[in-house]
C-alpha cells in the first residue's frame, strides 16, 4: 500500500505542473472533449497512445485490448467506435499494432493459455487465411513481424466493414482509417495502410513487401 502512495504524489505534481504551464487546461477539458483521433491499440503497457503520438489529454479517444483486435461481436469495441464516429466525429480512426506483440506470439505458439486462447483464435484465423505468404518466412522473427502486420491490415478491414463505418460513409461523413505499427525497439510508427474517406484502400510506404 505504501508504494501505491506514489501514484497520488505523482498525480499531484503532474496536475500542478500542467496548471502552471497551461492555466486554463483543466477548465477547458472539463467542458468538453473534441478529439480528432480514435486509437484502437494493444493493451501492452509499452504502447501508450497519447505518449507515442505526443498528444495531450483531450486529443485521442482510446480503445485498447489484447492484440488490437476488432470483431463485430465485441459490444465494447463497437460502442467506442460508434461514439467516436457519430458523437465525437473523429477525423481519423487508427488501428495500431506493435512488433513483438505478446498476443500474436501466444497465438503462434502451441502453448495453452486458458480463456485468452478464445480471444486469440481471431489471430490464428488470420494465420490460416494467409498460409501462402506465411510459408515464405524463414525465421520466427520474420513470421512474428509479418503476423503483426497482417493483423493490423485485417483489423483495419474489420473497422471498415462495421455498420458504424459503412453507414457514416453512406451519409457522406468524412474520416479515414489507418493501419499503423509501432516498434518498441526504436519508438517509431510505421505507415502500413489506410482507407481515405471511403472504400479506396491505399498501401502505405511500410506495407509488407511479402504482400506486394
Ligand atoms: Co500487444
Molecular structure report:
- The protein has 212 residues and is of the alpha/beta class.
- The chain has helices spanning 5-21, 25-31, 49-53, 75-87, 102-108, 116-129, 131-134, 140-161, 163-170, and strands at 37-42, 60-65, 92-98, 176-182, 189-195, 201-203.
- The longest helix is centred in the C-terminal third of the chain and has 22 residues, at 140-161.
- The termini are far apart.
- 46% of the residues lie in helices and 17% in strands.
- Helix 3 links the parallel strand 1 (37-42) and strand 2 (60-65).
- Helix 5 crosses helix 6 (116-129).
- The mean pLDDT is 96.
- It folds into two domains: 1-31, no CATH class; 34-211, Carbonic anhydrase (Beta-carbonic Anhydrase, Chain A, 3-Layer(aba) Sandwich), CATH 3.40.1050.10.
- Strands 2-1-3-4-5-6 form a six-stranded mixed sheet.
- The structure holds cobalt (II) ion.
Q: Quick summary of this structure?
A:
The chain has 212 residues and is of the alpha/beta class. Helix content is 46%, strand content 17%. The protein folds into two domains: 1-31, no CATH class; 34-211, Carbonic anhydrase (Beta-carbonic Anhydrase, Chain A), CATH 3.40.1050.10.
Alpha carbon gap, first and last residue: 53 Å
Mind summarizing the main beta sheet?
6 strands, mixed
The helical percent reads 40-55%
Mean pLDDT over the full residue set: 96
Radius of gyration: 19 Å
Quote the CATH topology of the largest domain. Beta-carbonic Anhydrase, Chain A
Beta percentage is 15-25%
With strands numbered from the N-terminus, the spatial order across the biggest sheet is 2-1-3-4-5-6
Give the H and E element order: HHEHEHEHHHHHEEE
Which CATH architecture of the largest domain? 3-Layer(aba) Sandwich
Q: What small ligands are held by the chains?
A: cobalt (II) ion
Number of separate strands: 6
Shape type: globular
Uncertain stretches: none
Structural class: alpha/beta
CATH class of the largest domain: Alpha Beta
CATH evolutionary superfamily of the largest domain: Carbonic anhydrase
Number of helices: 9
Amino acid at each position: 500500500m505504501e508504494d501505491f502512495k506514489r501514484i497520488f504524489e505523482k498525480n499531484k505534481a503532474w496536475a500542478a505542473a500542467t496548471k502552471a504551464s497551461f492555466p486554463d487546461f483543466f477548465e477547458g477539458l472539463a467542458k468538453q472533449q473534441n478529439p480528432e483521433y480514435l486509437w484502437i491499440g494493444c493493451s501492452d503497457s509499452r504502447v501508450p497512445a497519447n505518449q507515442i503520438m505526443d498528444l495531450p489529454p483531450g486529443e485521442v479517444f482510446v480503445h485498447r485490448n489484447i492484440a488490437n483486435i476488432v470483431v463485430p461481436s465485441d459490444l465494447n469495441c463497437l460502442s467506442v467506435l460508434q461514439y467516436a464516429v457519430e458523437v465525437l466525429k473523429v477525423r481519423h480512426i487508427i488501428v495500431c499494432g506493435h512488433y513483438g506483440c505478446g498476443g500474436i506470439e501466444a497465438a503462434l505458439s502451441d502453448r495453452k493459455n486458458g480463456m485468452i486462447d478464445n480471444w486469440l483464435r481471431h489471430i490464428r484465423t488470420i494465420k490460416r487465411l494467409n498460409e501462402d505468404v506465411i510459408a515464405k518466412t524463414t525465421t520466427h522473427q520474420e513470421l512474428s513481424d509479418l503476423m503483426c502486420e497482417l493483423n493490423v491490415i485485417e483489423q483495419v478491414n474489420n473497422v471498415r466493414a462495421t455498420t458504424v463505418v459503412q453507414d457514416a460513409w453512406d451519409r457522406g461523413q468524412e474520416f479515414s482509417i489507418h493501419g499503423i505499427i509501432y516498434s518498441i525497439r526504436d519508438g517509431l510508427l510505421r505507415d502500413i495502410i489506410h482507407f481515405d474517406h471511403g472504400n479506396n484502400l491505399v498501401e502505405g510506404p511500410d506495407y509488407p513487401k511479402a504482400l506486394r
